[in-house]
Design a protein that fits this description.
Belongs to the IS21/IS1162 putative ATP-binding protein family. The protein is about 55% helix and about 10% strand. By secondary structure, the protein is an alpha/beta fold. It has a five-stranded parallel beta sheet with strand order 2-3-4-1-5. Helix 10 links the parallel strand 3 and strand 4. It is elongated. Bound molecules: adenosine-5'-diphosphate (ADP) and magnesium ion. The site of adenosine-5'-diphosphate (ADP) has 17 residues, from helix 7 and helix 13. Adenosine-5'-diphosphate binds next to helix 7 and helix 13.
Length: about 260
């Protein structure tokens, strides 16, 4: 039986090797030019496909992480952030803390790069194969509050509990009522000791009690969060303010 390109392409398509199927002639052409052995030809195709599948997985995980924007650690200009050294940033980038289920608290006033840093670490983790989920505190409380009522919230909570890294942005931005504090405690307790959490906040943990309300629950929550934690203080002027676009081009009155 004469095997045609179309027959091979159909088999490839059946096996979900879609891009190889479409570009089969090019693969054959390259392999002929390189005088590939049978093994080398097969290896070329399989490597292409495994790389493609890996890339797709990363894209899917990036989408599921629901970052508000995608900025990487490479985009983070360490020279603009005096309170973090290049060495510390590299240490964070290695993600040993994530393997050891450490939490991070990124503290500082608005605009200093807390969210950017959290997202950058999240993207790094995704490229290393971890499942990451980003959520603002308000959205988290909403999801916890309505998980028994809406399928969407239920999915969010399930995904959070399944993640290797959870990023909670702007924690303690709002006061919680008793029911919300209970739900938040329950949630932290479920992640405790197995999932890393990165918190960003403009208030230090010592002030969180004011917003959680109940002192007993506050202690229980903090106990679990700070069992293994690194607190990183970011400061300086707001990067947004320093790098804002201006209408007049210059703020100097002499020009
Ligand atoms: P916040 O601390 O309020 O969470 P963000 O992380 O959202 O601030 O930073 C505000 C903006 O400034 C973002 O667009 C972020 O990318 C940018 N930014 C802040 N710090 C840096 C930095 N060191 N290098 C590059 N961009 C930065
Ligand atoms: Mg922020």
């Amino acid at each position: 039986m004469r095997i045609t390109n179309e027959m091979v392409q159909q088999k490839l398509a059946e096996l979900q090797f879609k891009e190889v199927s479409v570009s089969l002639s090019e693969f054959i052409h390259t392999s002929e030019k390189e005088q590939d052995s049978y093994q080398a030809f097969l290896y070329r195709i399989l490597s292409f496909e495994t790389k493609r599948r890996e890339d797709n997985k990363v894209l899917k995980r990036l989408k599921l992480a629901s970052f508000p924007y995608q900025k990487t650690l490479e985009d983070f200009r360490i020279e603009e952030q005096q309170s973090l050294s290049t060495k510390q940033l590299n240490q964070l980038r290695e993600l040993t803390w994530l393997e050891q289920a450490y939490n991070l608290i990124l503290l500082g006033p608005p605009g200093v790069g807390k969210t950017h840093l959290a997202i950058g670490l999240g993207i790094e983790a995704i490229y290393r194969g971890y499942k990451v989920m980003f959520l603002a505190m308000g959205a988290l409380v909403r999801a916890l509050n309505t998980q028994d009522i809406t399928r969407k919230s239920q999915t969010i909570v399930k995904r959070l509990l399944n993640a290797d890294l959870v990023i909670i942005d702007d924690i303690m931005y709002m006061a919680m009522d008793q029911q919300e504090a209970n739900l938040f405690f329950h949630f932290i307790n479920q992640l405790y000791d197995r999932t890393s959490i990165v918190f960003t906040s403009n208030k230090g943990p010592e002030e969180w009690g004011e917003l959680i309300g109940d002192p007993g629950i506050t202690t229980a929550i903090l106990d679990r969060i700070i069992h293994r934690v690194e607190v990183i203080h970011l400061n300086g002027d707001s990067y947004r303010m320093k790098n804002r676009s201006t209408i007049f081009g210059s703020i100097s009155v002499h020009e």
